[in-house]
Amino acid sequence: MFYKSTRSTEPASRSSAEVIKEGLAADGGLFVPESIPTLTLPEIEALCRKSYAERAADILSRFLTDYTHEELLEDCRNAYRRESFPGGAAPLVGVRSVFPLEIMELWHGPTAAFKDMALQIMPRLLSRALVKTGETRDALILVATSGDTGKAALEGYRDVDRVRILVFYPSNGVSSVQKLQMATQQGANVEVCAIHGNFDDAQNGVKSILNSPEMTTRAKVRGTVFSSANSINWGRLVPQTVYYISAYCDLINAGRIKPGARFNVCVPTGNFGNIFAAWVAKQMGLPIERLICASNSNNVLTEFLNTGVYDRNRTFHMTVSPSMDILISSNLERLLYFTAGSEKTATWMQELKETGKYAVDPATLKEIRRHFAGYYTSEEDTAETIRETWKNGDYLADPHTAVAIHAAEQYLAETGDTNPTVVDSTASPFKFAGSVYRALTGEDAKSDLEALDQLADLTGTKIPYPLAGLAKRPVRFTRVCEVSEMRQVVMDFVKKK
Predict the structure, then answer these.
(1) What does the alpha-carbon distance between residue 426 and residue 409 come to, in Å, rounded to a whole number?
(2) pLDDT of amino acid 367
């Protein structure tokens, strides 16, 4: 299996190890496989009899063909061991007393967010990639985060040999819990810096550094090669395909669905990576009927899916679901490539860069809408969904999960679709304890950190182990910079080597 850039007309020629090491294509595009491997129904049924780690190794081996199955199985078993995921990897929780929904909890890992599902395996893939490509330099992972990716990447890459990691986050665009998780991160090879700006500013800054010949050369002189842990890196995205296939297996094993029956997937979406991974699973052969894209008040994706016009020139809203406060959804580029080809994709991305908007042609929109439906959830509806889901369904949802539940409700009511619907639960409610507590009580918590205990007392729910005692951990990182200073921050870290 070879890979190419979404913006290139050249044939695919890069190995999976090369694209995992490099992260972003030289022309600014995203790496994509030359084709999407198939998965037959008998193969899915065979996966039903396997563990999550075994399922992951099987799926990854179809994309990462320069890795052996033995290597992938070893890495998956280490990544998804019970010690790291005490609540299990991607368990399903039914809330049928309220909705015909299945909640897939993706947050039982070391940082209580869904990013752990990919970022526990990705560092292992990168370490092998450095060896497979004969890379003599050490890797510096550059990360832009809206909250969860940063901590998950820091934890995944902590003290990994030959790898260092630097995370940028918007200083006022993450929750207090998320900020403290990053500021207290342990590890000799980690660095964290806040920026004055939003996530899009951080993401654009990282992309510009990764694409800068000057920065690449300066790093090379000091024995460093840049890479990324955001979902722009294929090594981060492809592990996310696994849990949709695994969810279908779990539905079969639980007797909730028959093999071959169709189901829906609803994903709270910001950068479009998680839902694109579900689309990849569908293209492989997983019988997904509809991919429901759930947005918060920053509903640029909802508008695009309904009109074909992508326009980031709009008011940016800071919401109670900050990991979705994004106006440039990078992974949408991959969908455009598979739908319309590299030439159109390159044109649209250039228009986005120059004008902040683009419009796809009717045929492209029609094909996208054959798979996707877009809905958004207001701040008021997010709070109400948290409250009602807890009251009626005895399920405690974080704001991002609530956005998805409400979007799924809208879709089911509008269409009358009776297929089972899997909703991604992307973070523990305790990562956003203040917002959840306010939604349930109508009152503010004493503080965001004290809200952890207040929410636990109110609901009788145990605080997840990654968040317990967070307030007592020593703060290591306090640096804040302007967007224009990000390159200097990177070089300062490079020089520390």
Answers:
(1) 18
(2) 98
- Output helix, strand, coil percentages for the chain, rounded to the nearest 5: 45, 15, 35
Predicted confidence at residue 469, as pLDDT, reads 86
State yes or no: pLDDT of 484 exceeds 90.
Answer: yes
Catalytic residue among 4, 115, 179, 431: 115
Residue 120 in any domain: the answer is no
Q: Could you give the number of structural domains in the chain?
A: 1
Q: What is the rounded CA–CA span in Å between residue 94 and residue 393?
A: 9
* Structural domain includes residue 419: yes
DSSP letters for 376-399: E--HHHHHHHHHHHHHHH-----H
Residue 102: closest CA among 92, 110, 111: 92
Q: Report d(CA 51, CA 18) in Å as an integer.
A: 29
- Picking from 71, 172, 68, the residue whose alpha carbon sits closest to that of residue 124 is 71
**Alpha-carbon gap, residue 449 to 462, rounded angstroms:** 15
Q: CATH number for the domain including 367?
A: 3.40.50.1100
Q: Which residues contact 234 (CB under 8 A, 6 or more apart)?
A: 3, 16, 19, 20, 30, 31, 32, 33
Distance set, CA 241 to CA 38, 276, 368, 449, 463 (Å) = 13, 8, 19, 33, 28
- Residue 473 CA neighbour count, 13 Å, CB half: 18
CA atoms within 13 A on the CB side of 309: 8
Task: Report pLDDT digits (tens) over 208-241.
Answer: 999 899 999 999 999 999 999 888 899 999 999 9
Active site residue 115: yes
- The pLDDT of residue 446 is 87
Q: Per-residue b/e over 418-444, b at no fewer than 16 CB within 10 Å? A: ebbbbbbbbbbbbbbbbbbbbbbeeee
Question: Closest by alpha carbon to 177, among 387, 464, 480?
Answer: 464
67 within 8 A of 61, measured Cβ to Cβ: yes
Structural domain includes residue 357: yes
Inside any domain, residue 82: no
Q: Is 96 exposed, middle or buried, given 0-12, 13-18 or 19+ CB atoms closer than 10 A?
A: exposed
Quote the strand ranges of 223-321, DSSP E. 224-228, 263-268, 288-295, 309-311
Range of the domain at 416: 92-115+237-466
